[in-house]
Amino acid sequence: MRRARISYCLIAVTLALAGCAQVQKPIDDYIVIGMDEDSTGPGASYSTIAGSTVRATVARINAEGGINGKQVRLVVENDESNPTNTPSIIRKLVDQGASAVILSTGSGSALAAKQISQSTRIVTIAPTALTDSVAGPPGNEFAYMVPNPLAQYADVYCGAFAEQGKKRLGVLADSSPAIAGILGTLEPELRQCIDVVDTSKAAVDTADLTASVSRLLGSDPDVVLVASVGGNFELLAQNTLHRLAPGLQRFSLASIGNQPQSWKLAEHGALDGLVYMGSLSDDNHRTEQTQAWLRTVKGANYSMTAYDAQAYDSVMLLKRAIELAGTHTDPELLNRAMQEIHEVPASFGQAPLTLSFTPDKHIAPDSVCGLVLIAFGADNTPTGPWPQYQPACTTRGSDR
Fold it and tell me: Whole-model pTM?
């Protein structure tokens, strides 16, 4: 018994000392990049796509000699797109020696990561988050994001509504935290250009949307926006809208366009006429090059998504920053190097799109034309850029 007490006390002391240990500093012999990947939560449908491409890009960098002659090691944790889990996940990645963290998770979790990136002085970069505040002030000194932000989504949707003469918008949304955060930013912007007549929400795992869609249609919208993380909810929404209101113009977020495995699961013709917010254009040769490379990794028939392109660009932007800083072990130098990245050609968006960071601009796209409206055809596959409206490649809204 005395030995047991001594052993117990030794364990308790060890645990106490471990709890008081200082954060692990980046390792000099190799470069550790952390990734917070939601692989089991509501954002898994898109986070795992980006996460897979992050892994492939790191492997490619290592095969080509690494960064500054050092190999890159990727360490991965999962916050399940639960913002309450994110702070401990980021700290765990920092404790494993990460020099930077890729946030392949939902916007709510990426937003929760911002405070931790500030307190730990570690660069975070989000390849899939859409909420402007993820990389916007306050407290964004070490926080960055790659996609065009939601305020610019609103600009593009509003341009499309005006082009079509639409006046009354109905919104059908899932109740996930990620979509709640997105609508919190998007809806106020949309209300400036169109009358939002109803917002109908349902559980992300619902099996029937007939009542929700019927209630939404009762408000007499002339256009509908589906806001979801994708997966079954998005398919159910599109199938139900197609059945109950086949002539109604439908728009969606990026999710449906970036989940090609789900298209064949839609009812016949259910996606016909749907326009989603894409980020890939057939006029961008860099997109074509990235897809050609991905097909050597993911299979000859792989259809690249915007999540792939933005994940690839996220890793390459970190690589460039480490090269500019000349080190990965000094967080202040690395962060300053991030803010010196200027007009890097993007792998997504229209051909003229470039990516830049400055001390006052932590959202990468230099133009709204990182966004591309894409239309579906009768065979439930995208036909290409929507001919009725596209955003121009100007800097309008790029600093929003």
Answer: 0.83
